[in-house]
Amino acid sequence: MKIVFDLDGTICFSGKPLTRAMVQALDALANHGYEIIFASARPIRDLLPVLPEHMHHYPMVGGNGAFAAAGGQLISLTPFDQATKEQLLQLLLHFKADYLLDSSWDYAYTGDDEHPIRRNLDPHGKARNLPYSELTEIVKMVVLRCHDGDRMLSELQQLSVVTYVHGTEDIMDISPQGVDKWSGLQALGLRPQEYIAFGNDANDISMFRHASRSICVGEHAELKRIATHSVKSMEEQVIEKIFGLIPAKSKF
Predict the structure, then answer these.
(1) Is 70 exposed, middle or buried (0-12, 13-18, 19+ CB in 10 A)?
(2) How far apart are the first and last CA of the chain?
(3) pLDDT tens for each residue of 121-154
(4) Cβ contact 175:63 at 8 Å
(5) Which domains, and CATH codes, for the chain?
(6) How far is Cα 205 from Cα 210, in angstroms, rounded to an integer?
């Protein structure tokens, strides 16, 4: 059985790496034959630092589906097409937005140095912060702040993109049309109903809809409504739910 885990707010919290207790829980799953897959809004570059090194070769989806990697190698990348990219850049300028643009590895960031997104961005300093004109492609966009956010969101909804609004962080997370976590999982070869999913936010809805079972961490109303189980946003409860997946006879 395959188990897909979102990261932030699901198995890691406050942008910090997985705790020792969480790593032990995931290792217990792996030792009992489960295949672990990570699916995050983070690009692969920022996904790796929160994982222990022995999990860096695990299958993973990054950028809400724009990246797929396995065995430590990128196997799928879905950037914005040229016309959509130009439309998005025009909106950034028009609404005087602060943003994070991700390419396959490097990025363009114009936000506040104290923004939570910045604190989790390339913590090991392995990529370059470049002007957007120097990025070879743009795979994902995050709008951190802008003038007239409601109007910008309305403009975004007219484009061929997928937009998630994260209310708790007050950001807009934008991906190419047709890209979501389920499309990323498909790039890894997953089929409907062959995995269990853990998640906590709107960008996990697509993978919940195709899971055999799903566990909502926290109180996101729409995600909780389609989940088969839910737990509070507390690491101890998530770990308890993870260990509950291991057959009782295998625990002794």
Answers:
(1) middle
(2) 20
(3) 999 899 999 999 999 999 999 999 999 999 999 9
(4) yes
(5) 2-77+180-251 (3.40.50.1000), 82-176 (3.30.1240.10)
(6) 9
